[in-house]
User: Fold these one by one.
Assistant:
Number 1:
Amino acid sequence: IANIGELLAIPRDELSQRYGRDFDRVIKRIEQRGERLLTPNIRESRVSWSFDLDQPVEDFEQLIFILNHGLERLFARVANYGKSSDHIDISLRLENGKWHRYEIKASFPTLERRFWLKLIDLRVSIEPPEAAIASVEVVTHFTRPRSDQRGLYAVSRPEPESLLLTAGKLKKLVGTHDVGVPVLLNQRLALPFRLDADALPVGKEKRERHSPRPVIAFHYFRPARRAEVELRDRKIVHVRTREFSGPVIEHGGVWRAASKWWEADGWRTQEWDVEVENAGVYRLSLVNGEWFVVGEYD
């Protein structure tokens, strides 16, 4: 026996009789069917593909068919290495000689072409190139394949591809500034967070359960709703808005906050928590003499 091919050509029964049943593990590992797969010795970390157009095109959607062919060739090479990808770079050379580049990342590795085509199309439609496209270059970065093993009776759940495509459509509809992953800011602001449109959500299931602690959720209204507030003996007794109206059962406050008073974007507010009969628990804010309902406790 000079090589692995000659070894695999021998009937399994003969190998088992000669080397024992434990030799089956060796055969399965060679065929990558064992408990541990062989890791390919790959020096490359990415593969690329490019295409020069005969004539420049104005609309990127005209390149979808060509791009689909390019992804098919790229993903075949990636799969041949036993890898997957969660990161693709798109470079468009424009007719005016400039380059327009896009970095597209997913929160999971996949070689599903339809998913990547939709994600690329949405990304380019949000920031279209300024001139006609003369050539396209695609770079696919390697990563480990996704392991997705579920139990026989596991509850079915939406695929992660659907979430990213939905987020991409929302960015195209309302803009990138209003869709993203919340990031806390180490600053004293009225709303101390921002939305990172480029960040990807990272979720991990935790099976251990800690001692239950009550958590109060708060829903901000965007924009804050104007309100008419009735005071009696410096206490809030009635709240009226377009959505609800009623007497105040309980209230807490006042809480005063301010920051950046020395700058043009400085802010100052006074807030109360009120429970409105047959409506809910809300937060009121008094800004420059006007009342607003800024949110509701769930």
Number 2:
Amino acid sequence: MICSTLMYTPSTAGRVVDLWTRARRAVAMRLGRYEPYLPQVIDDGRLRSDLGRYLGLPAATIAAWWDEYAALSRAQGYAARMGERKTLCFEEAFILFALMRRYRPPTVVEIGTQYGRSTRRIIDMRRHLGLASRVVCFDVVDQVRFFEPSEAELVLRDVTDDVAATVLHAYPAGLIYLDAHPYALLQDVVRAVLADGRWALAIHDCAAGLCNPRMTLPRDEPEVTSRSGVWERHVLADIFGVPDPLSARLDDLETASHRLRVFGTPHGLAVILPRQLAPAPDPAAD
């Protein structure tokens, strides 16, 4: 809620920046130009409410988990150590924390590890929650800085066109965290997970502010960044049959087998759960 007085606080300043950036992006889009947009401030009350409904949990449970993860995040100093931009930020990490706390996955697979900043958070969640989850990371080069080989496995392999055999059928079904931009890889992971029907999938960078509806890069271009726009919403729109990747329909939809929700976090974290893991919305979540 915006204060009625003109007190200059970080959140007030962030809202002013957000209003200006959204207005500039809107003008650019009308002129046929793309500009990325990452909000400075999010509505964390709405995020918790949306997550509670999605997971079928009461608001009090989500609030308690939020406080629990906030304490862990502060104790580990993630914001100062690893930053909150172009990586898993606090709100997005909390969603993974809630998924791990709710479902206690035997396996957590990360595709697109790079330096291991997100992996560090996942490893610490596992320890905090007392889980025995096997953490397996896939990337094409070893740039890891934030975890040791004893804490998680790093597999140097491109899993494009081989996700089912290399990941889904190779480990006990659990949670996949996908943070990589190539179109073919995104498409293969999402289609394989939907066909398999056992795994939960979380995908980073699904915010509308990172979606360029007029992508000019070829789909086989490996160098995809926020400056060009990313493919995540395009892939989800293609697979789920939504004509416009910027459509709000893409943020909350169901099929006969799965539920997709794109949560309102800075980068936009999408979660796809098989229906047996995604219960009917709980009114108490509000």
Number 3:
Amino acid sequence: MKKKSTVPLCVANGATFLDAQYLEGWAHRINVDRLSLSSSCNCILGQLEGGFVEGKEKLGLGFRSGLSYGFDTFAIWRYSWLTKEWKREIAKRMQAQ
């Protein structure tokens, strides 16, 4: 998944994964003003589990699943794309609840 067009799908997959892990309450725990996928503390997993690495370990995520769930990126991706899409996904979930 190397294109910007794959970002929404990856983030949607990641949100569905988090729904299963946290019973859909995870979005309320994210401070979107601090959200930055380039920060290991302020990324999705960082805010949920205290750090990116800690979150991956707790949730049993390997390198590839971190990418396919929109939690991480290859160098050719931009973290800003992921951050923007996660903010959209969280806003959508907050409105639905």
